[in-house]
Each structure stands twice: as C-alpha cells, then as structure tokens.
Specification:
Length: 386
C-alpha cells in the first residue's frame, strides 16, 4: 500500500485529504508544519509527499530546498490556496513534482498521485538496475593473474589502442572488454558487440558494414552495420577466430583506413571506433592453418590481455562464491544463505571446465536446492551432474 505524507498547517485540510486518500486505499501520515514534515521524511519512507506552500517554521519552498540538498528524491506535490504562476514555476524549478491549487480538485489530485507513484517506481527500478549493472560489471578476484588483468585495464583503457583478449570460453573476456570501454574516454558512446561465431559467414559482412537497399534479395532497405552503430564508441568483435577470411580482409581495410563500404555501396564512409577483439582460439595456430590472416592479427594484437581460466585461479573461488551468493539471493528475493568452509574447499577441488559461467550456474543451483547453510555434501551432490 503506497504511503503518503500530508503536510499542512490547517487541520481540516489534513483531515479531508486523509479521508479521500484512505478511501482510495492509500496509507496516510500527517504533519502540521514543515519542520515536523521534514523530520518525518528523513526518518520514514514515503512514496509521495503532499505539501502546503505557506506554513509556519518551515514553508514548502524551504522544505524543497532542504530535500534537494540531502538528495532526497521523494516526489513532492505542492499545494497552495494563493496559487499563482510565479509560485508554481518557482516550486517546479526547486524540484517539486507538481503544483495543485486549493481547493484541490479530486480527479486532478488522484491523477497526479498515480503519476508521481509511477515516477517514484521508475526511479527506484533504475537505481536497482544500475546497482545490478555495476555489480555484474566488477572483475572479482585478487589472484596474481586477475590482478595483472586489472592493472592492464587501468593502463590501457584511457588510450585508443586495440586490444586482443584471449582466454577459454566462460572466463570473462566480454567483462574485460566492457571494463576497457567503461573506463575509456569513449564510455559515453555505444559499446557494440558482435559475436562472430553466431553469425553465418554469408551475413557477417552485412552485419559489420551494413548494406544498401537492393544489394541482395532480402535487402529491402538501407541498413547501418555495427561499425557505424559504434561510431565514437567501442566495437567488440567476440570470437574473431571464427570470422570468414573475406570478412577479415574487409575488417583489415577498415582498421587501416578508418573507412568502410556498405555491402552493395560504392561510397566510403569514415568511422571512428575503437576495436577490441576476443577469441578462445590459438590464433598463431589458426594462421599456420590458413584460417586467420597474419596481417589482421598484428593489427588487432596491439595490447594482448590473457584472461586466466578459473582452474588457474582457484584462490579466487571464496570471493566469487560470496559475490554470486549475494547477487543471486538478492535478484531472486531469497534470504541470504551461508557457505560452510568445507563447501568452499569442495568448490575449489572441482575442475571448472566451463569457468566463471559454469561456476555461476552451480552457485544458482546450490542456492535453489540447498537449505540455509550450503555444505560440502551439497556441493558433491549437486555438482555430480554438471
């Protein structure tokens, strides 16, 4: 049930608003002046505040300023029996969600409250999502290999140097690429990912460079490719070892000239992107087999970053377990579970061929299937069918 605070020095107005709002299934609290209202707002959680402008001790506009200085984002709807355009404009400028004149129109009041509650919900949801994104974007661990990766990211991210990230499937190559982008001067622009292994060879060039209308049977309209969509930002070519040789040649040309041509087009389009590539393959071996261009390899491999497998950094498992335990329990709305010391040792003894991706899945499985404390017996039982 949404909770609303009504701040007004007139008892009759507070009473009438309470009756209306409680009838509409709102929980209502009252304050007879701005000072008491401020105290309630700072000590309790409200979804919306209805506040009179003219009040003793602390008027509505002063209350607005104090809430703004404290970064309190509760939607505050101002009310005044002496309403004029200047007061309304000043209130909105200082952060009021809306301005109502007394006597308050019932329909207008209810619509304003619904909109303010929607806004408050969106603000809360956005904060939660940002928190999730920032948490999921952290590189967890303090092993020697991971510390070296973190140090390289800090040095390389502010530059425009191309980076080639290597490592096994599920080891966190995309996470490294995102960190490089987020810590770069291009962070305010797009991070565009292309999974080269997931796109058929006959479509990869159109996906990367776009196409002109009519350039092939299904090209019913002109379409921008990933190079253009990443303009100003970062283009992440994941699993580049699986890219066709013809597409490799065009990528090489784009890197050399900072220009691309759409499929079926003659016009050279300038592009300004930072290219980060990743692969789980040994590109030196692929070059020897004739599957990968050596000149493209040298263009991409300005800064090599190798992400160690989980088997190479098992000392990070306690930190990773705690991280995923907190994240998954929070996401699923479950009570936080405990991991026994024996269960951590049991997790460290597993081979982890699927790396971090497999580890996260196992942690989610344990959280769902186990009781409050996860034991070594649980680990053995529920990882026997990996």
């Amino acid at each position: 049930m949404p909770k609303i605070l009504v701040i007004d020095d007139e008892k009759s107005i507070r009473r009438s608003l309470r009756e209306i709002l409680e009838f509409e299934k709102y929980q209502v609290d009252e304050a007879e002046d701005g000072q008491i209202g401020l105290s309630k707002i700072t000590s309790e959680q409200y979804d919306v505040v209805l506040c009179d402008v003219k009040m003793p001790k602390l008027d509505g506009l002063e209350l607005l300023q104090k809430l703004a200085s404290e970064n309190n984002e509760v939607p505050l709807v101002m009310m005044s029996g002496h309403g004029n355009i200047e007061t309304a404009v000043e209130a909105v400028k200082k952060g009021a969600y809306d301005f109502l004149t007394k006597p308050v129109d019932l329909n207008r009041l209810l619509v304003t409250l619904r909109n303010a509650l929607d806004k408050n919900h969106l603000v809360t949801e956005t904060k939660t999502l940002r928190k999730k994104v920032s948490k999921s974007g952290d590189i967890i661990g303090n092993s020697k290999g991971i510390e070296e990766v973190k140090a390289l990211i800090e040095k390389v991210a502010p530059t425009d140097a191309r980076v080639l990230i290597t490592g096994a499937n599920g080891s966190g190559k995309e996470l490294v690429a995102r960190q490089l982008h987020d810590k770069s001067n291009r962070a305010k622009f797009a991070f565009v990912e292309v999974n080269c292994a997931a796109i058929p060879s006959e479509l990869i060039e159109s996906e990367l460079f776009g196409h002109e209308k009519g350039s092939f049977t299904s090209a019913v309209a002109t379409r921008k490719g990933k190079f253009e969509l990443a303009e100003g930002g970062t283009l992440f070519l994941d699993e580049i070892g699986d890219m066709s040789l013809s597409a490799q040649a065009k990528v090489l040309r784009a890197l050399q000239e900072n220009k691309i041509n759409r499929v079926g087009g003659d016009k050279a389009i300038p592009v300004n992107v930072r290219v980060i590539a990743a692969t789980n393959k040994n590109l030196h071996q692929e070059i020897e087999k004739g599957n990968f261009r050596e000149d493209l390899f040298h263009r991409l491999n300005v800064i090599p970053i190798h992400v160690p497998s989980l088997a190479e950094r098992k000392e990070d498992i306690p930190l990773l377990a705690d991280h995923f335990l907190n994240m998954i329990c929070t996401d699923q709305g479950n009570a936080l579970k405990d991991l026994s010391e024996e269960s951590i040792k049991a997790l460290q003894q597993l081979p982890w061929t699927g790396n971090i991706r497999e580890f996260r899945n196992v942690m989610e499985r344990l959280i769902i299937l186990c009781d409050k404390t996860i034991t070594d017996k649980d680990v053995k039982k529920y990882t026997s069918f990996n």
